[in-house]
Write a structure and sequence with these properties.
The protein is built from seven helices and ten strands. By secondary structure, it is of the alpha/beta class.
């Protein structure tokens, strides 16, 4: 776990943007039982945490994607983070809708984008990677050179990792499932005995044997 992974994990737990309930699982829309729920929108209402997130995002983008020319947020959760980080980096910013509008100019991509622009996509959370891949594909179809994706948090699920690899997308995250649960165990948010159960969920979300 590096410095940024720990910092953001601590921040997300502190403001309860990440809930860990292995004894009382959440139910996802897919019906899967999950011991974790992540709401990174809460970072926007916590100024100190918001500063940590955007400062870390700018640092990571500069280090990993130094050629970046434009930041593009995913709608809707990535938009604010892309805007704040772009302001800090003095870069243009826009965002990508999940689909084109059915009125006006029928845009899917909002903001000025020229063919060949070197773009980094900003996402708040990556699980299976579907919405993020859709955004990257829309940008590529518009002629952008998508350097990669930066997310605040990832569950690190194999399905998401495989899909991002198949789509040929370079991707980094400020923090991740493993870092969050490690910090959570250290700080008493969960019992140390729960760590293996949470890892079992991450490795195979459809197998509910971890609940028992």
């Amino acid at each position: 776990m590096n410095r940024i992974e720990r910092l953001i994990a601590e921040d997300l737990l502190k403001i309860k943007a990440v809930f860990l309930r292995p004894e009382e699982p959440f139910t996802w829309a897919s019906g899967i039982k999950s011991p974790i729920y992540c709401d990174n929108r809460l970072t926007l209402t916590a100024p100190e945490v918001r500063t940590d997130v955007e400062t870390s995002m700018a640092e990571v983008i500069k280090n990993v994607f130094p050629e970046v020319e434009v930041l593009m947020g995913t709608a809707t959760a990535g938009i604010a983070h892309a805007a704040i980080t772009a302001h800090m980096m003095d870069l243009p910013m826009g965002y990508v809708r999940s689909s084109a509008k059915d009125h006006g100019r029928a845009n899917q991509i909002e903001g000025k984008l020229e063919a060949g622009d070197k773009v980094v996509v900003v996402e708040d959370l990556i699980s299976t990677g579907g919405s993020c891949i859709d955004a990257v594909n829309a940008l590529r179809e518009a002629g952008a050179d998508v350097l990669g994706v930066v997310s605040i948090m990832t569950y690190g699920m194999q399905k998401g990792i495989d899909r991002m690899k198949e789509a040929d997308i370079k991707w980094v995250s400020l923090t991740n499932f493993d870092s969050v649960i490690e910090v959570a165990a250290e700080q008493g948010y969960i019992k140390k005995d729960d760590v293996d159960r949470l890892i079992a969920f991450r490795n195979n979300p459809s197998d509910e044997s971890w609940i028992k």
